[in-house]
Amino acid sequence: GAGVSQTPSNKVTEKGKYVELRCDPISGHTALYWYRQSLGQGPEFLIYFQGTGAADDSGLPNDRFFAVRPEGSVSTLKIQRTERGDSAVYLCASSLEIGQHYEQYFGPGTRLTVT
Amino acid sequence: SQELEQSPQSLIVQEGKNLTINCTSSKTLYGLYWYKQKYGEGLIFLMMLQKGGEEKSHEKITAKLDEKKQQSSLHITASQPSHAGIYLCGADIGGSNYKLTFGKGTLLTVNP
Question: If you average pLDDT over every residue of chain B, what do you get?
């Protein structure tokens, strides 16, 4: 079946602008995760959804970042007043359930460049 | 310091050679995952290890978990150019059941 998809694949925006990044998880997966990967680094956890609610948003860097998953499927990561330091690849992952037995399947990512 | 250290940072091997990548945690491992990433692409799930002493294989790739040493190794036998990419280890080191911490990755180049 279809894997995790993310749109857009690339986004270039000017400093101070607002951006939205979209994630379509694998159908039937209840858990959804956002990670951020900077150049030369491994992904860093941002936020996790179980169903519609954000169960853990402790990884969001500051209050300019916000994510929603209104119907328990598609999720949108929103960044306000973008800064150059926000430039990174934003990865979305989903898993059937939460727990160490359930592997997280990752999407191809959205490469965000803030100029 | 990194909670998950991978070594080496990069590796160049000749096609057909064997190689090993290591991943060491400074904290207790509750689950260890190996992923492969190619430039511009997402992470491809390779293997998941949960119990000390566990060993899993897929095609020519074998991963082991040494729980006491808080370490995992990924071994590739008879490497091929298709094995080239960045190998990332990720782990649940806080017992959250969902939050993965990743190493910085190991860049593997396989020369034909």
Answer: 92
